[in-house]
C-alpha cells in the first residue's frame, strides 16, 4: 500500500463512445496519466446513427459540459423544423388492435440524432492527440504484484504497455471481458438467444416518400407485430430516412449470407407497415444478426475493469446501450477524480462495479423484454394495449429519468468507505462477485 506522487497510469482499451467519453474526463485530471488504445486505424463513417435518451445527456453533463457540447454540436434535428416536438411512437401494426398507439417514448422538442462517426470525432477532439493511439489491437493481458506497474498489455503489433489500471471499453467481443471472466465462461461471448435478425436501409427522404406514407418520413415510428417490428428514423434534418425490420426467431446470417426479407409474410400487417417492409426488402446489402451478453458475475478484478458494451452489451431495442456506456464513464470519471495512490484503484473499481452492474444488467434485461413485447411474445400483452402502455411508461422512467447524481454519490460513498477501511481485505467472493 505504498504512497506515490507520480501520476496513476491508466490504459483504456477501445476508443468508442465509452472509451473516448471516459478519456475526455480523465485527461483533464493532472494526477492521472491516461492513454486510449484503439484497434482500427481510424473511425469510418458507415452511416450509423444514434438517438440518445435523457440519461445519456445527463451522464455527458456529469463528465463535463464539453462532452455534452460535443454531442449537441454534432447532433442534428431529426425533423425539418429544428424545434418540432417529436417522440418515438410505438404502434400496433397487426392484430385486433392494429393502428393503436401504445407509447410515445422520449417526447421532446427538437429531438436529435447523431451520426456515430460525427459523435466519435467530437469526443476525440476532447482528448489530447498524444493520449490516443489508433491501430493498436489488444492481444494479451497479464498481471504482476511486484514493481510499479501491475497490469501489462501486449498489442497485436508486438508493442507493450505497463500500467496501474486497465479499463476495457473494447466492445461486445471484448478481450478484457474474456480475460476477466475466462474465455470459457458462459457469459463471455455474446449470444442471440431469441435469434434476432435486423434488416435496414438508408434512403433519401424524397425516394422514401415515393414508396411509403410520407408521415413516416417525418416521425419515429416503431410498428409492432409477431413476425418483426418495423422502425423509421429521419436523419439529417429530414433529408434521409433510415428504415429497418427486426425479426425474432429468424434464420440467422450476416450480409450476403442473410436470408432475404420476405414481404409476403407481412400481408396481415397494416398497409403502411407493409409498404415500409417492401422498401426495406429491396435493399439486400444491410442485414445482420444481433446479440447481447448474459450477465457477468463481476465487472472488475484487482486493477482491471470492463465498461460499456464490453461489460453489458444489450439488444438495440431499448435504445440505451450507448447511454449505459456513458453512465459507466460518468461514474468512473467521478471516482478517479479521488484516486491519488495505486492502492486506491481497487476501491474505485469495486465501487464502480457495485453501482453500475445491477443497473446495466437491468437495462440488458429490459432490452430483451422490449424485443419480446415488440414481437407480441410477452404473455397476452398485445391483446391488452393498456398493459403495453404501462410497460413502456415504467421502462422510460427507469432508463431515462434515473438520478445519475445519486448514482455517482452512491459510488463515491462506497469508495470512501473502502478507502477508510484500507486495512481490510478486498477479496471478491467468486460465486457472487461481491466484495467480502
Ligand atoms: C443498430 C444499433 C442501434 C443502436 N442505437 C442506439 C441508440 O439509439 N441509442 C443508444 O444509446 N445506443 C444504441 N445502440 C448501442 C450503442 O451503439 C452501443 O451500446 C455503444 O456504441 C457502446 O459503446 P462502447 O464504447 O462500449 O463500444 P463500441 O462502440 O463497440 O466501441 C468499442 C471500441 O473498441 C475497439 N476495439 C475492439 N476490440 C479492440 C481491441 N482488441 N483492441 C483495441 N480496441 C478494440 C473497437 O474498434 C471500438 O472502437 C445501438 C446499437 C446498434 C447495434
Q: Would you mind describing this structure in some detail?
A:
- It is a single chain.
- Helices cover 34% and strands 24% of the residues.
- The model has no long low-confidence stretch (mean pLDDT 90).
- The strands form four sheets. A seven-stranded mixed β-sheet has the order 6-5-14-15-16-13-17, with helices on both faces. The protein has a six-stranded mixed β-sheet with strand order 8-2-1-12-19-18. It has a three-stranded antiparallel β-sheet with strand order 3-7-4.
- The two termini are 19 Å apart.
- It has two domains: 275 residues, FAD/NAD(P)-binding domain; 93 residues, D-Amino Acid Oxidase, Chain A, domain 2, CATH 3.30.9.
- It is an alpha/beta fold and 436 residues long.
- Strand 1, helix 1 and strand 2 form a beta-alpha-beta unit.
- The structure holds flavin-adenine dinucleotide.
Fill in the keyword field for this structure.
single chain, 436 residues, alpha/beta, FAD/NAD(P)-binding domain, D-Amino Acid Oxidase, Chain A, domain 2, 2 domains, seven-stranded mixed beta sheet, six-stranded mixed beta sheet, 19 strands, 24% strand, elongated, binds flavin-adenine dinucleotide
Describe how the helices and strands are arranged:
Layout: E1 8-13, H1 17-26, E2 32-37, E3 49-50, H2 54-63, H3 65-74, E4 76-77, E5 85-92, E6 101-109, E7 112-115, H4 116-124, E8 132-133, E9 138-143, E10 151-155, E11 160-163, E12 165-168, H5 175-181, E13 191-204, H6 205-211, E14 220-224, E15 229-235, E16 240-247, H7 271-282, E17 287-292, E18 300-301, E19 304-306, H8 309-312, H9 321-336, H10 345-374, H11 385-400, H12 404-420
Parallel strand pairs: 1-2, 1-12, 2-8, 5-14, 12-19
Antiparallel strand pairs: 3-7, 4-7, 5-6, 9-10, 10-11, 13-16, 13-17, 14-15, 15-16, 18-19
